Amino acid sequence: MKTLLKWPMVVIPAVSLLPAATQVHPTYFSKSNADAPYQGSGNEQLVGSDYFVATLQPFDEALGTLISFSVSAEMDAAIGGTVGENGTSGSTSGSISGDFFLNDLYFASAGGGYGNGGLTGTKVEVPFSISPLDELFQVSEPFDEDYIEVVTGDSPYQVIYDSPMNVFYNNMSDLVASVEGNIVVTYTYETSSGEIRTLRVVGILRNVQRGEVTVEWTSQPGKTYTLEAGSSLTEGSLMAIDASVEASEGETTSYTEAVESSVKSRFYRVRENE
User: Fold this and answer.
1) CA geometry: angle 130, 58, 238, nearest 5 deg
2) Cβ-contact 44, 38 below 8 angstroms
3) φ, ψ of residue 161 in degrees (nearest 5)
4) Domain coordinates of the chain in residue numbers?
5) End-to-end distance of the chain based on CA atoms, in angstroms?
6) Which residues form the signal peptide (predicted)?
7) What is the pLDDT of residues 206-247, one digit of tens each?
8) Fold classified for 1-14+199-274
9) Residue 262: how many CA atoms within 13 Å on its side-chain side?
10) For residue 223, how many C-alpha atoms fall within 13 Å in the half-sphere facing its CB?
11) 30: which strand partners?
12) How far apart are CA 231 and CA 24, in angstroms?
């Protein structure tokens, strides 16, 4: 497990306090075969091409006028095990590679893979990932018109990464494969005041060894913020961690809280105080 992990995040701005804002809508993915490790030789699909699918609600035009939206994605994978005794050596490799679609509209491709091996009894580790995706679609750009229509329509839509995770192995024992990632859609919109200001989370880092999570968001000097967190987005789940976080002098402010290693996911919300 990596020491630093980016967590799923949700930012729900208080519209009455922010003349314009950014809404962040994440979908988080995590899959492993730790309960049934691969043995011997073969090839497997840890996840199929229909696994990385984020289903989202369209932009709510009651909030204001959409300026742009972006799609970002990260996928990190790892394979690890021990070379078996049915020979003098063994190896394993893996890959994730595919295309990104907004419903049936293609907009990007990404992939990655890696392989490694060793002698009998050797522990083999194979980490790999895709290059982080960050795709921007603007209302003012004619080429983005079809994509804008999807996110401003009347029905939920999907962001799809159509890649399976393939695992190949030869003479391996207790081989565990895993993949973690996220797809995040961000709406930026302008309210009736015509002023554009953005409050958004720019990073969530987890330090497993220290039992800490650090949340960082855009801020304005002189302002104070309320940071809330919870295990879900159901009503009453998000509770204030600190209701008077003072903004730093720079463009962002960060806050670190203690989180036990047993916690698998956590949602955050930042509000600008009056």
Assistant:
1) 80
2) yes
3) -115, 105
4) 1-14+199-274, 19-198
5) 40
6) 1-20
7) 777 788 888 888 888 888 999 888 877 666 777 899 999 999
8) Immunoglobulin-like (2.60.40)
9) 0
10) 19
11) 180
12) 17
